[in-house]
Write a structure and sequence with these properties.
The chain is mainly alpha-helical. The protein is about 70% helix and about 0% strand. Helix 4 runs antiparallel to helix 5. Keywords: Endoplasmic reticulum, Lipid biosynthesis, Lipid metabolism, Membrane, Steroid biosynthesis, Steroid metabolism, Sterol biosynthesis, Sterol metabolism, Transmembrane, Transmembrane helix.
């Protein structure tokens, strides 16, 4: 089993990539079949969360998960690493702007994980870029 996991020789960021990959993949799959969890995330405008919006969001999230999985196993590759930064930047911008600008998200049990994962991933990848890409 350990041979399937990325190396932690230079740090634990690859495991963070995998953790957020698994969470994102779960979220993407559930968005194709049910939307009650997304309605909870966007609880202040839950009526705007349709099955079509859920599938679009699921596809976007699955793409982010694919990029993060690639970065987990290629953490020293500049392109993979920078694309992973981009996934966290986009997620952070999306959820934070939905909260503070558009008013569809409020911090609750549905949204707090996405806000924390986005901000944690963005800060961690930006502050450790030199370490992993030197």
């Amino acid at each position: 089993m350990a041979s399937l996991l990325p190396s932690t020789e230079s740090g634990y960021l690859p495991y963070w990539f995998l953790l957020t990959t698994c969470a994102g993949t779960y979220n993407a799959i559930q968005n194709y079949f049910v939307i009650w969890q997304s309605k909870e995330v966007y609880s202040l405008k839950a009526h705007e969360m349709t099955f079509l919006a859920g599938r679009i969001f699921g596809t976007w999230t699955l793409l982010a998960s694919l990029i993060r999985a690639t970065a987990a196993y290629n953490v020293h590759d500049r392109v993979a690493y920078d694309l992973a930064i981009g996934t966290y930047a986009l997620a952070t911008f999306h959820f934070t702007s939905e909260w503070l600008i558009f008013g569809s998200v409020k911090p609750n049990r549905g949204s707090i994980g996405a806000l924390i994962a986005g901000w944690t991933g963005l800060i961690w990848t930006l502050t450790q870029r030199g370490h992993y890409l030197s």
